[in-house]
Amino acid sequence: MRTLLLIVDNGDEQRVASSHPTLIAMLEALTDTLEDSTRKGDEAGVAEHSDDHQSCESREKGQWNKQERKQKIKIEKAAAMAASTGRTPEIRKDVVFNKWVIFSPARARRPSDFKSHSPVNPNPQTSYSSSCPFCAGNERDCAPEIFRIPDSSSSDWKVRVIQNLYPALKRPEHHIPDPSPNSNPLVLSGIGFHEVVIETPNHSLRLSDLSPPEIGAVLLACKKRIQQLDDGSVNYVQVFKNHGASAGASLNHSHSQLMGLPLVPPTVSARLDSMKEHFDRTGKCCLCEIRAVELLIDESSHFFSIVPFAASYPFEIWVVPREHSSSFHEIDIETAIDLGRLLKIMLMKLSQQLNDPPFNFMIHTCPFQKMLQKS
């Protein structure tokens, strides 16, 4: 079986799927490369502005403490607003369509950059926005940070993974508890993880504007976080990105999301069962068989992109690894950068040919091994 990256140009229906995480050594090696590529330009800027920086240190320290207090109040307020509804998140089963749906009161209170489905300036040409919590310099306006790349707090970050200030799932205090045998089988407690991957510190850049190594760093950050969640507390992790208001994005700044779930979504189980049935019947991998010339869009050293034969959405694209790999966490630096290169091309094609349309993309992968062993 293979991991599958799916890009969907469809802003009317949000679909998410999943993925898996990364080795610290890989991330450090990759970020060293990224730092070397920008160090010369940075050194010139630092030398020029060092005197100004020293004169502002004392003032910035006072502002920093003020921002810290402000952020603490903001986080406490968000938690209090969610609690004031008297409801906690729930995961309810739709028995008609055999799917699980998350009901979360906190999500209704999240802010939005988009006042309509057609924002006046969807990609403002400014590297910083004082009102954007994801911009470099506004870190204290975000929910708590989980990690950053590079991991040193003394250097500028390239990618940050943070908690979601308005999560769809409630973070567990310890491990996610197993359902009680006497509980309602159609309702699960909405316990899990919902986090944000800030893909760039620059407010105006989109994922397609980043270089292949920079996109690779984003993919490796997702991999690292999912590996951290593979500790018995969740059964499946979904990685997805919403671009544009009608695709589900609430903030302009380029970011993707992770959700650690206490269950394996039925759509994932159905996909695995279907591929296994095809292999048992034919002895062949169905993803290998669909790589027809008439469906091929582009290819790289480790991946190829196609239009699926039975596409469910307009302009649907699949990015598939050449080698059989069922888990996204098996990706390394070389393949992450190679995937970043092909993903960049696909996103640029969508943007240029369709005038920057809203889209969703998601990473399909296997559940954690403990779930495969149970099945």
From TrEMBL:
It comes from the Eukaryota. This is Uncharacterized protein.
